[in-house]
Amino acid sequence: MAKAFFRLQKFLRRTQFLLFFLTAAYLMAGSLLLLQRTRLVIQQGSRGTSANQALPVTDGMAGVGVLDPRTLQNPRAGPRLLVGMDAMQEPALDQQHSPRWLVSRNSELRQLRRRWFHRFISDQEPMQTAGFKAMKHTAEHKGTYVGCFSDDSRERTLKGAVFYDLRKMTVSHCQEACAERAYTYAGLAYGAECYCGNKLPATASKPEECNSECKGEKGSICGGVNRLSVYRVEELRAGARRRRNVIYRGCFRAPENLTDTFPASLIQPNLTVEMCSEFCSKKEFPLAVIRGQECYCGYPTGRFSLHDGADGLLCSGMHNASSAAEGKYCLVYQTPVQDTRCTDRKFLATKSKVFVALSSFPGAGNTWARHLIEHATGYYTGSYYFDGALYNKGFKGEKDHWRSRRTICVKTHESGKTEIEMFDSAILLIRNPYKSLMAEFNRKYAGHLGYATDHNWKSKEWPDFVNSYASWWASHVLDWLKYGKRLLVVHYEDLKQSLIPKLKEMVEFLNVTVTEDRLLCVENNRDGNFKRSGAKQKDFEPFTQEMKDLINRYILTVDEALRGRNFTGLPRQYVPR
């Protein structure tokens, strides 16, 4: 009897272990199956809408959340208002102007658009580096290697920070970039950073201390930790295409004491603009000022702000002895050298107590606003997304986690109650929807700096894009007006026209104190690295009358919503078109 009981007990123990093993195996198999299905759904979502999503997507708009054009074209068939706006029944949204067919953007649509941003960013990286690879073979190591030098970020000699590239930096790329900007020396550090200047660093280091391999060029050295590999690129400057030529800024009344106003000067018989510009460029000053045979170099300051120009006729005889003797007016030119008084930036030393968003619809100038804010405050801005092209242009906050609170504000295009209420306050940047839609369409098909082709504009993707994104422009503003806790509304057009006053408002909103000279430096560097270049189409009107009617309804809705919250309405040039 005891023996039989022992056998039964032994069998039960084995059965218990077997059941435990089978249960674990079942759970593991279920988990693997769930992960596989989740991956499949994500892949399907990145290619287009899944079968259970009633959001038709054209082939060219794969991964973009677009609305059914039939719903948009039929005002009486759609829902009543925008994203999360069904509860917002304010008198300001008068039904005469409020499009009842403004389609609600639900969470699925926001996710699809978010996926499109991430996919677009990854697709753009090869486009941004295509010309870069070609440059490697055309100008490789043409500069003269000078040596390895110490690099102190607080007292940097090569102050013209050009760009960063953690993946594709090469010696030749840095050399060409500095030569195009009329600098004499190019310095590389950390294998990925490029700096330019006209003066050699004071402290030389041992050659072996420059030991960081270039990220985009195996076998080549690009400085080291706090060490610069310095090249002389003066021989490249003659054949280099200048990023920007000497620019005429205008005729201005000369300060009472030019010697006190400008730190460098030159008296030269038969002085020319080229002579003065070259002299000031070597001295690393962004302004070249000519009065008769006198050349002065310096910066825009409170004493010479370049805000009050004079009639150009008053400077027409500047090189005559009589005009020089009077000395009342001077000619001002912008040299290729960057104004470096406001280029140094850093992360916040302590975590910010106030979590601030820099919110806008795509194509509304968010990157430009970040450039202005960073240079005005001296602190990096963050981003809800990661854009490698922006990081390579010096926006180091792109790689910082957007909730780290180490940046002065965080870029976002998101809307909806949950996304908005994460922030304590926000700068809401609004731009004319006609301009925003065209800018975003250009960015989608040609990157940050290019223009879409005629084929893109004439394809079926453009009307689908307008039908989808026009409603997003309106819903984005309305959502932030409804859910935003503390807002500063800034119109892109006002910022462009009155840069310093509007930038002062933004900086004060961020609780940062800046000097007037720093703001003038920002104004002098107002365009940054993201001004579109290339062949822009003249007299080009991509909007049909049907598109205009659609957009104008959204404009009137947003205008009334702004006034209903006691904000300034949209600029007059918005409506109607």
UniProtKB/TrEMBL annotation:
PROSITE patterns (UniProt xref): WSC (PS51212)
GO MF assignments: sulfotransferase activity
Pfam family, one: WSC
SUPFAM superfamilies: P-loop containing nucleoside triphosphate hydrolases
InterPro entries from the UniProt entry: P-loop_NTPase (IPR027417), Sialate-O-sulfotransferase (IPR051589), Sulfotransferase_dom (IPR000863), WSC_carb-bd (IPR002889)
Gene3D superfamilies assigned: P-loop containing nucleotide triphosphate hydrolases
Keyword annotations: Repeat
Keyword Repeat: yes
Domain WSC: 142-234, 245-342
Family, as annotated: Belongs to the WSCD family.
Protein's recorded name: WSCD1 protein
Species of the source: Aramus guarauna
Protein's gene: Wscd1
